[in-house]
Amino acid sequence: MILPEIFTQVILLSSLFVPLSEHNANMDKMPESQSEEYQLVKELLDNTTPDYTVSRGSKCSLHSLEMNKTEVDIVYGLRNESELREMGIDYKSFPNGRDYISGGCVVWSGMDVKAIIYLCASCVEVRNKWLEKNSMEQIWDDRVRKMILSDPSLRRIDLNP
Fold first, then answer.
1. Would strands 100-104 and 68-76 be described as parallel, antiparallel, or unpaired?
2. Among 121, 127, 123, which Cα is nearest to 86's?
3. Range 102-108, long-range pairs (CB < 8 A, 24+ positions)
4. Which of the chain's ends, N or C, has fewer CB atoms near its CB within 10 Å?
5. Alpha-carbon distance 9 to 7, whole Å?
6. pLDDT of residue 61
7. Which pTM was predicted?
């Protein structure tokens, strides 16, 4: 190799490290609250309960009330019909009222079982009223009632026990 080629390779190679070292120096100066991702990863590495209130406002988007930080269960697995219906309307009717969060369908050991979220007292109240009318028991009662009323051979069944 001739000297100009070696010089060019050394310059190119050293230019790769300059930005990395500058970036690392800046990362040491970066405030911890600068990125939401940093906070979540830091908490996961600390092996603590994940806090989903980080970088979120504490006022309910629907009721404009101050919400409370609450530790809730993380629920894994498939949802039943009532839960699926709830998930379809909760963002419109009670966005901060669910007393659990969904962790998805796949479960493996070491997964978090608790999380910290904001709950709005008014959203919780609306959700509880909704659940009374939309429980799995109520859904099945409504279906059976509809089947009985639609089938003439079943109309003799008393619907009011």
1. parallel
2. 127
3. 102/74, 102/75, 102/76, 103/74, 103/75, 103/76, 104/76, 105/76, 105/77, 105/78, 106/76, 107/76, 107/77
4. C
5. 6
6. 94
7. 0.57
